[in-house]
Amino acid sequence: MASTLHLKALEIQLDAILALGTPKLSFMATTFVPNSGTDQYFSDISAEVASGTTAVTLASITTTIDTVNNRVELDTADPSLSTVTTTTNKYCLWVDTGVAATSPVLATIDIVEGTLSPIAGTLSITVNAEGHYALKAV
Amino acid sequence: MAFPAVRSVASNAVQTGAANIIVTKPTGLTAGDLMVAFVSLWHPGADRTHVTPSGWTVVQVAVIDTDNRALACYKKVADSSDAAASDFTFAFSAGVDKSTGAIYAITGAASGNEITIFEADVSSTLGTSLLTYTTALTPVVSESLVVCGWHVGHTSIASPITSSLPTLTPTTTLAENVDIGVRDGASDGISLFCYSGSYSGLTQITSRSITTSVSLNGDGCASIILLVNAPQNAAGTNSLLEVQPTIFTDAGVIVEGIGTNALFDVSPTLLSQSGNSITLPVWTPVIKT
């Protein structure tokens, strides 16, 4: 059998959804439990954004075809928020169309270190060298 | 992150009977500095209470007895008008015989979470010059500034009581910032001592003490200790979330060569000699009797 998705098409699809608006990252409350089916738009999750935080506009967004691992990777510059007091253990990636009800949620990613609790300090994520997430062709 | 630090401290001790005490602005006070004020009072024989100054927040009030002795602690983040002021006034419910006050100007405190941990203790009959309080103060950040104010009262003293040898458990280097007192005509007096020092880590502070210049009698002592939080950063990482497609089986179903047959029922056609088909009569047998 030789069934496979094709990397270029995966990349184009990912670029297309990112082009819907401004890609952003929101730190989520520790009580947030993502539902991949019902959490479609930012309006579905906005009530569970971690208290004290604001959305981070992602920079240096790249979608890269990795032929070695047969996947397309989404990577960004390391996001951070300054002078924030909050508690969080995960973040959501979403595309801000300007309207929360049409801003699609792409992924919820756990923070490896668990719960982070800055106090009037900087909350930052060092993004994995491969990126936030990847779509495999097979 | 850096520890919060004391920029400067100003203090005053009065025995005027006024319904307030005025403390000079700490030198160099800048908008954004955290101000921490300790204000004590002693008015023999009558009820007196502290009045929270406008714009300030009460950290703790240690009431030694319900009518006339208490130590209050307030906090406020300085704004531009505070930085421009020359002094600050702390009022009481009515004229007070003796009062003391001190204001810290502190830099580097966590904005919005400057002071979250504090404790107050009081005592009366002592008979010792070593004033010790059991403490249960656990930092919430790894870098704090510990600030501690002490009020002592005493009757029949030759001069205002002074203090020395402040200690903290775990051992912490403390600096004396305030050591002031006032004595009235009856030789009754109060004193205010304030100490501060950088505190590293999250280990609970379990006791604090000072040594006074005289053995303290039953005229009341109080202490308020607090921790000023440094900002605390938090950094994390993510594991790559890899999404793999699921390949479904083909839609068609392959069927093996198994078939069935219906009975092929064939009835012969009888033909006459002429080749025409005839239908044979059905003979019915007759039984001869």
Can you describe what's shown?
The complex is a heterodimer of chains A (138) and B (289). Chain A has helices at residues 7-18, 42-45, and strands at 22-28, 56-57, 62-66, 71-75, 80-84, 90-96, 105-110, 121-126, 133-136. Chain A is mostly beta strands and 138 residues long. Chain B is built from 1 helix and 18 strands. Chain B has one helix spanning 80-84, and strands at 5-14, 20-24, 34-42, 50-51, 57-65, 69-77, 87-92, 98-107, 115-123, 128-137, 143-154, 163-169, 175-183, 189-200, 205-216, 221-229, 234-237, 241-243. In chain B, 39% of the residues are buried. Classes of the chains: A mainly beta (138), B mainly beta (289). Chain A binds chain B through residues 1, 3, 5, 71, 73, 83, 85, 91, 107, 109-113, 116-128, 130-138, and chain B through 1, 110-113, 140-141, 229, 231-245, 247. β8 (121-126) of chain A pairs parallel with β17 of chain B.
Report a brief summary of the structure:
Chain A is mainly beta and 138 residues long. Chain A contains two helices and nine strands; from the N terminus they run H-E-H-E-E-E-E-E-E-E-E.
Strand-pairing-aware structural class of chain B: mainly beta
Helix amount of chain B, in percent? under 10%
Rg estimate of chain A, integer Å: 16 Å
Protein structure class of chain A:
mainly beta
Query: Major beta sheet of chain B, specifics?
Result: 5 strands, antiparallel
Strand numbers in spatial order across the main sheet of chain B: 1-8-3-6-5
Tag the structure with descriptive keywords:
heterodimer, A: 138 residues, mainly beta, 4-stranded antiparallel beta sheet, 3-stranded antiparallel beta sheet, 2 helices, 12% helix, globular, B: 289 residues, 5-stranded antiparallel beta sheet, 18 strands, elongated
